Amino acid sequence: MALPLLLETLQDPQLVAQFQRLCGLTLKPKGEVNGVALGYSSTQTLQGGREKTAGVKGVPQENGHKPYINGTYTNGTHRQIVMYIGQASKDLLKWPRPSSPPVVKLETRVEAEYGMPSTHAIAATAISFTFLMAAVDRYQFPFVLGFVAALFLSTLVSLSRLYTGMHTVLDVICGALIALLFIAVTFPVWDVMDQLILTNPICPVFAVVAGFLLSYNYPKLDHYSTTRADTTVILGVGAGTCVGVWIINLIGLTYVPLGVFPLGIPLLTYPMLLRQLLRFVLGVTLLVITRFIAKTLSLKALGSWYKVSTQDVLVRQKLEIEVPYKFVTYTSIGVVATSIVPWIYYLVNL
User: Is 36 helix (H, G, I), strand (E, B) or coil?
Assistant: First the structure.
């Protein structure tokens, strides 16, 4: 099959619709007037032959010491970068999502976004395989088992994007390939980047300034899309993470495991499970508080500066409001998650 024909086939919404039908999800017209469908509803076949129906729009969208790190911090920053590439590519390429009909659309919040590439596929592939590559020399585990787990998780998320009707097969494949290519190109310098992030005083400043400028100068569209807000969140968390791990290294709390690498993976015990549960509850509580305070204060400051009501949803969607408040909010979350929370764990012996 020639490459252009292959690409056209992979972009065909009928391919997505066929996959949805295999999963028991179909699109049926609610009624017709002069041969024109009035709308569509999705019908999902459940166990026992029962059917579950939901309304679906039927109109296509127009649209000091050197710790053993081995990419421990870089793979987090790496995911922010590759996600930005994916998000920005959507609004530069402007390829529409698969049309409905024939595809069943199960999500409405992101219908105004473009489809190529699938950022869910990028995120799932990047997260799964960066964790694998960062852990391969750090812990003792069968590499094949880790590879299969990473492949399974990334594939599961990618297939979910077809099931929800949000992407074509080509969108998903390209998303996964972008992540894998970025991993292959950056993996040799992960350790170098880790050292810079942990020790160079310029890195925190650069991360915040670059992250904000990239968010503020995100590709402009002729309609509002959630991609700019989502991208700002991603870059804000990445910038905050860079600042946080730099601070935690500065105060000497960078974790340095004892023993010879690769380390054995300890068995899960009840005391360990309880400890992790306490860490989770405490960490989430602090992050929820941080989000509330940072969001409230940043919106009040911006509302006062521009003399507008930030309670208005449309006002919050404006560039000069949306980008600063989301960037400040999620940068704060990144800083707290990677410096304040670990410091409190240390103080309370968690």
Answer: strand
276 — phi, psi (to 5°)? -65, -35
User: Letter for the amino acid at 273?
Assistant: L
SS (H, E, C) 54-97: EEECCCCCCCCCCCCCCCCCHHHHHHHHHHHHHHHHHHHHCCCC
Q: Which of 65, 78, 167, 223 is catalytic?
A: 167
Per-domain residue ranges for the chain?
1-189, 200-255+267-350
Q: Is the pLDDT of residue 160 over 60?
A: yes
Q: Label residue 349 left, alpha or beta by phi (over 0 means left) and psi (-120 to 50 means alpha).
A: left
Q: What whole-number distance in Å separates Cα of residue 46 and Cα of residue 23?
A: 10
Q: Which residues pair with 139 in a beta bridge?
A: 263
Residue 344 identity (one-letter amino acid): I
Q: Where are the beta strands (DSSP E) in the chain?
A: 25-29, 32-33, 36-37, 40-45, 51-56
Cβ proximity of 167 and 115 under 8 Å: yes
Q: Highest-confidence range of 16-25, 123-132, 252-261, by mean pLDDT?
A: 123-132
* Confidence band for 35, pLDDT divided at 50, 70 and 90: very low
pTM for the full model? 0.76
Cα-Cα-Cα-Cα dihedral sign, residues 309, 220, 327, 200: negative
**Rg of the chain (C-alpha set):** 23
Q: Could you give the CA distance from residue 179 to residue 78 in angstroms, rounded to a whole number?
A: 10
Output the six-digit token pair for 9: 């086939």
Q: Is 223 a catalytic residue?
A: no
Please state, in angstroms and rounded to a whole number, the distance separating the CA atoms of residues 146 and 149: 5
Q: Which tokens sit at 147?
A: 């590879």
Confidence band of 43 (pLDDT split at 50, 70, 90):
low
Find the mean pLDDT for residues 209-222. Answer: 86
